[in-house]
Amino acid sequence: MFSELTKPLSIGWLLCTSLSTLPVLAQERPGNPGRGADVYRRYCITCHGERGDGAGEFAPYTVPKPRDFRQGTFKWRSTPSGSLPLVSDLEHTIRNGVYWTAMPSFFPLSERARRDVIAYIQTFSPRWKSDEAAMPLQIAPEPAHTPESVAKGRTVYEKQNCAQCHGDGGAGDGPAAKTETDDWGNPILPFDLTKGHMKGGTTGADLYRVFMTGLNGTPMPSFSESIAPDEAWDLVHYIQSLAVTRPGAGSVQKEKP
Amino acid sequence: MRHIAVLSLWIVTMMVAIPRPAAAVPAFARKYGVRCTVCHEAWPVLNDFGRAFRDNGYRMNLGKDEPSMTDPAYWPIYVEGQPHFGFDLVKSHTSPTGTTLQRTGQFQAGVSVLGAIGTLGAHASYLVIPVASINGLTLGFPTAEFRINDLFDSSWLNVRAGNTEPDLPVSRVRDLDLTGVGLGAYSYHSPGSVSKFDMGGNNLGVEFMGHNRGSRSRYSVSVFNVTGSPEKNTKFSTPGVSGHVTHEFSPDQGPLSAIEVGGFASYASWPVGVPGGNAMTSERKASTKYGGEVHAWFGPDALPVHAVVTLLQGRDDKALIPGGVRDGVFNGGFLEVIANPRLPFVVFGRFDFVRNQDQALPTHARDFNNQTAYSVGVKHTFEYTTRAEYALVVNYSLSQTKQGAPDGSNLSHHSLWTGITFAF
Predict the structure, then answer these.
(1) How confident is the model at residue B158 (pLDDT cuts 50, 70, 90)?
(2) What's B51-117 look like in SS3?
(3) Stretch 103-122 of chain A: residues touching chain B, C-beta under 8 Å
(4) Rounded Cα distance, A39 and B301, in Å
(5) Distance (Å, rounded) from C-alpha A160 to C-alpha A169?
(6) Which residue of A has its CA nearest to B52?
(7) DSSP, res A160
(8) Which of residues 312-371 of B touch A (CB under 8 A)?
């Protein structure tokens, strides 16, 4: 009897193996906002709210506040300051979460589910229909991480007055730290750069991108007009050198492709 | 004799129904500001996100998991309750209309749990259930487990010690069915076997487990002392080992949103029985089970229809069956379907079976003690927030046992469960 039972199971294995090749064949497809609404209601609504206004039931207890999708203002982008992000930017945020915030990593969801919820998020703001798609930032190749580069980065840090918000040691305790607010008037703290893990990602390129595009809706500006690409990499290396490994620095899920 | 048989049936039913602690944990909802729907396909069944969260040692891994990173006012405590009305009808089928052996209907407290769960540090997690009861009777086997996460900085090596939930295709702890019927293949043994090993129950031991990012590929290996062993767990007297591996695919198009395949096996020793009596000897023999499963999720990712087929084969050494002339072999499994047409509403059903292949006792017909069970139910969650939830459940099941009645006729057991489940 068992041999009869194992036959359908074997067929199932073969079927699954065949189906596993489908993602390889899949190209970038637009998400389905209808399905995305269900994904949104299951996973996102408690913070971002039913109407995408960032006023979900848990929003009062979070710092920073959840994004108000109606504004079309997004922090984590590869596009110039003030512009909409690319779909791949939103995918990056949803997939990896935002470190040290209430935004978890939704990596366990399928790619299709993430694509669908992005399509739904895009229905909240008319900007997604009216604005032209912006070109992403071209990230210069990373030079070698040397003591000289770190020293130059410190100079850039001082010259650009980063310490005003992030403090001399990068701990987020600059003179302006306690009075900063986001575009909606909510208090916002400059990030503690000594945590060793940045909000927007774990790689040097993630950090580079933040300098050069800024974080829309926050006091963090874009330095693309005032910092040259090699200086930006020096600044990346300097900030990476500020990381302190200490107890209670927080557990981190390593980002992998 | 009849009363003893009915009482035995009731006890077995209750034993199957008991181990449900740690089903859903509102403490996590409060800590991370998420609703139950984030981690549960349909509470208490975990979805991919919830499984990854559990596999990660109850951590989101975004720097805010450790106790020192949470609000001092936060306490990782949760409470669950299941007040309900239960109705049971047990019949033997000596005549076409059947003979009623038992008919009971009463309001019951159901399972109540007071537990605590969370992290102790960046790489340590715990689960403690100091108080768990069923219908007011405190369970004698509360849960406590300690887990070390990411040994050698790898998610592929985690260790959990204690009285742990086994890793199986469908967890009995996370079963939507509340009648306690079904998943019988996990605990089944060949007729006459003295072994009481239950593959679906918690066992004291150590589990090694690992997973990739997102928990799409996973493994689990457990070494344990079989719960209920004659030496009362005072020593490693009845060792067992079990394992489970799974891999999930997500087709990017078509009606299937995900497929998961897996395989599992268990080996559990037990003192052999003495012919003609219930006494045990010091000699150990094993009961084994192995099988595989396929999960398929159809339709939208967030509101899927989830079907799972599990097939297994079990074997009890003939020495475990007093008077046995050969090993007892049986096949079993189940088909379960969970549909989630809209978010707070769930429909579920399951078909279970156990079929004996080789009877150890020559006096038994091949189909003696074959079992079939059907279970259906609906669950509607009225409110679910980041703090609490409560739901109405209506659940009916029918189990049939071939020649299971005291007079040797077939036995059927109808069970109805209707009531409220709540957690906060």
Answers:
(1) very high
(2) HHHHHCCCCCCECCCCHHHCCCCCCCEEEEECCEEEEEEEEECCCCCCEEEEEEEEEECCEEEEEEE
(3) 103-113, 116
(4) 7
(5) 15
(6) A108
(7) T
(8) 313, 331, 333, 343, 355, 357
Cβ-based contacts of A121 with chain B (< 8 Å): none
A16 touches B at CB < 8 Å:
yes
Burial B85-116 (b: 16+ CB within 10 A, else e): ebebbbbbbeeeebeebbeeeeeeebbbbbbb
Q: Rounded to whole angstroms, how far apart are CA atoms B190 and B188?
A: 7
Quick check: A1 and B309 CB within 8 A?
no
Burial class (CB in 10 A: 0-12, 13-18, 19+), A246: exposed
CA closest to A97 among chain B residues: B62
Distance CA B178, CA B284 (A): 35
SS3 state at B226: coil
Both tokens assigned to A257: 């492709």
Are the CB atoms for B371 and B401 separated by under 8 Å? yes
> Is residue B40 within 8 angstroms of chain A, CB to CB?
no
For an interface test with B, give the residue of A1, A3, A4, A5 to mutate (most B CBs within 10 A): A5
Of A20, A43, A197, the CB nearest to B63: A197
Q: Which residue of B has its CA nearest to A99?
A: B62
Give CA–CA dist B118/A102, Å, rounded.
Answer: 17
By C-alpha distance, which of B132, B124, B127, B119 is closest to B145? Answer: B127
pLDDT in tens, B319-365: 999 999 999 999 999 999 999 998 889 999 999 999 999 999 999 99
Minimum distance, in Å, between the CA of residue B243 and any CA atom of chain A? 19
**For A79, which DSSP code?**
S
DSSP code of A28? -
B340, B341, B347, B352 alpha-carbon torsion, rounded to 10°: -60
Question: How far, CA to CA in Å, does B82 sit from each of B108, B135, B315, B350?
Answer: 8, 9, 36, 21
DSSP state of A128: H
CA A166 to chain centre: 19
Q: 3-class SS at A35?
A: helix
Q: Is B254 on the interface with A (CB under 8 A)?
A: yes
Predicted ipTM?
0.87
Neighbours of A164 (CB within 10 A): 14
Calculate mean pLDDT across residues A113-138: 94
What pTM did the predictor assign?
0.88
Chain B contact for A195, CB < 8 A?
yes
Cite the DSSP H helix spans in chain A. Answer: 2-19, 22-25, 33-43, 45-48, 87-96, 111-121, 127-130, 147-159, 163-166, 204-213, 229-241
Q: How far is CA B318 from the centre of its chain?
A: 27
| Pairwise CA distance, residues B262 & A154, whole Å | 53
**Are B257 and A110 a contacting pair at CB < 8 A?**
yes
Interface contact A24, partner B, CB < 8 A: no
Tokens for B364, please give them: 């038994």
Helices A33-43 and A111-121, axial angle in degrees (round to 10): 100
Q: Are A126 and A225 in contact (CB under 8 A)?
A: no
Lowest mean pLDDT among A31-35, A142-146, A212-216, B110-114: B110-114
